[in-house]
Amino acid sequence: MIEAAKHKVTVIGSGNWGTTVAKLVAENTRDHPDIFEKDVQMWVYEENVILAKDSPHYDAAVGDAPQKLTSVINTHHENVKYLPKIALPTNVVANPSLVDAVKNSTILIFNLPHEFIGNICKQIKGHILPYARGISCIKGVTVTDDKIELICEFIGEALEIYCGALSGANIANEIANEMWCETTIAYNTPPCDLVNGTARNGAAVEEHRDSRGQVITTQLTPIPKNYPTLDHDEFHKLFNRPYFTVAMVSDVVGVSLGGALKNIVALACGFVEGHGWNMTAKTAVMRRGMLETIQFAREFYPETIQEKTFWEESAGWGDMIVSCTSARNWRYSKMAVERGVSIQEIERTELNGQKLQGISTSREVSSFLRARGVEDKYPLFKLVDGILDQKVNVEDVPKLFRK
């Protein structure tokens, strides 16, 4: 008789958002011991930290000597650099070795800047279980002049596994402090993982298809039968908390594009508010931005897009509203106009080496649209790119709505 197995979870990334996700996931692995192993591995890019004398973790014997961040997390159960003052469950295990952190894990949760994901996949390929499954918490898409690709599908193809996506109206610090919010997880369960290769109602299952409606060429390895199934119910149990309400859908396109393109709209809203216009002006920009987001999805993903995702889910309007009223793309674009400098200057002086996702997304999307000769069909996206290049003035925004 084959011994029953449990799903082991690894969170790849330990920044502000990554540590927050590790916290809530570890709470759930502890609460569902029939499905998950209790300990959650969290890969931490190792660095040295110095604890201030007013830190509750300060040790006079150590003093000002640098300490390994992973050691501090595992000893004091707090990510003192990226999520300070938040107590982590004791079953979050910080691991400086990426390869060791993903070893024997059946669930990989990706949560790091999207520009690093290619290198991360190269490092762990061949070191993960062939039947591992992923969830990408990375808001964005990879875009070149030649193509646009959902990050969850990029991960899936690179590692030859299936990967879903999480996105919503989520602010990491609020969630870490257990202030209630909601999110959306898109997971289109591979047919090989369904019960006996059929849907739960016994109907035959079609071949697994990607976001463009094409049959996925990667030959997925089924999850062994001695593991619990991995479907919407199981992922809901892994992520849902009293303070974090999860809705499960199968629309990876809507969830992924909503999480990426709203950053362009958030920049526009910041520009508008920095100029001194009011909430009604921002609302007009949000409305136009949502229309262009849906139009983009219709044009480039007509086979699988489910438009109701944008209207009904947190990954749609919810994320758009939060991003355009309180998140950092909005905040720093507003600051740029108020100070009379470029947003690139604000990024350089205010973000401590971090990058604004909206800038890179706007650049990539605009280049992609220009290469296809359809840039004029997306006037708000074009306008934001022009402001970034300092070729268009914020005062020109109302002209967009008079056409």
Automatic annotation (TrEMBL):
<dbReference type="GO" id="GO:0051287">
    <property type="term" value="F:NAD binding"/>
</dbReference>
<dbReference type="GO" id="GO:0005634">
    <property type="term" value="C:nucleus"/>
</dbReference>
<feature type="binding site">
    <location>
        <position position="357"/>
    </location>
    <ligand>
        <name>NAD(+)</name>
    </ligand>
</feature>
<dbReference type="InterPro" id="IPR036291">
    <property type="entry name" value="NAD(P)-bd_dom_sf"/>
</dbReference>
<feature type="domain" description="Glycerol-3-phosphate dehydrogenase NAD-dependent N-terminal">
    <location>
        <begin position="8"/>
        <end position="189"/>
    </location>
</feature>
<dbReference type="InterPro" id="IPR011128">
    <property type="entry name" value="G3P_DH_NAD-dep_N"/>
</dbReference>
<feature type="binding site">
    <location>
        <position position="116"/>
    </location>
    <ligand>
        <name>NAD(+)</name>
    </ligand>
</feature>
<dbReference type="GO" id="GO:0046168">
    <property type="term" value="P:glycerol-3-phosphate catabolic process"/>
</dbReference>
<feature type="domain" description="Glycerol-3-phosphate dehydrogenase NAD-dependent C-terminal">
    <location>
        <begin position="251"/>
        <end position="397"/>
    </location>
</feature>
<feature type="binding site">
    <location>
        <position position="172"/>
    </location>
    <ligand>
        <name>NAD(+)</name>
    </ligand>
</feature>
<dbReference type="GO" id="GO:0141152">
    <property type="term" value="F:glycerol-3-phosphate dehydrogenase (NAD+) activity"/>
</dbReference>
<feature type="binding site">
    <location>
        <position position="355"/>
    </location>
    <ligand>
        <name>NAD(+)</name>
    </ligand>
</feature>
<dbReference type="InterPro" id="IPR006168">
    <property type="entry name" value="G3P_DH_NAD-dep"/>
</dbReference>
<feature type="active site" description="Proton acceptor">
    <location>
        <position position="262"/>
    </location>
</feature>
<dbReference type="Pfam" id="PF01210">
    <property type="entry name" value="NAD_Gly3P_dh_N"/>
</dbReference>
<keyword id="KW-0520">NAD</keyword>
<dbReference type="GO" id="GO:0005829">
    <property type="term" value="C:cytosol"/>
</dbReference>
<dbReference type="InterPro" id="IPR013328">
    <property type="entry name" value="6PGD_dom2"/>
</dbReference>
<keyword id="KW-0560">Oxidoreductase</keyword>
<dbReference type="GO" id="GO:0005975">
    <property type="term" value="P:carbohydrate metabolic process"/>
</dbReference>
<feature type="binding site">
    <location>
        <position position="139"/>
    </location>
    <ligand>
        <name>substrate</name>
    </ligand>
</feature>
<feature type="binding site">
    <location>
        <begin position="13"/>
        <end position="18"/>
    </location>
    <ligand>
        <name>NAD(+)</name>
    </ligand>
</feature>
<dbReference type="InterPro" id="IPR008927">
    <property type="entry name" value="6-PGluconate_DH-like_C_sf"/>
</dbReference>
<comment type="similarity">
    <text>Belongs to the NAD-dependent glycerol-3-phosphate dehydrogenase family.</text>
</comment>
<dbReference type="InterPro" id="IPR006109">
    <property type="entry name" value="G3P_DH_NAD-dep_C"/>
</dbReference>
<feature type="binding site">
    <location>
        <position position="328"/>
    </location>
    <ligand>
        <name>NAD(+)</name>
    </ligand>
</feature>
<dbReference type="Pfam" id="PF07479">
    <property type="entry name" value="NAD_Gly3P_dh_C"/>
</dbReference>
<protein>
    <recommendedName>
        <fullName>Glycerol-3-phosphate dehydrogenase [NAD(+)]</fullName>
        <ecNumber>1.1.1.8</ecNumber>
    </recommendedName>
</protein>
<feature type="binding site">
    <location>
        <begin position="328"/>
        <end position="329"/>
    </location>
    <ligand>
        <name>substrate</name>
    </ligand>
</feature>
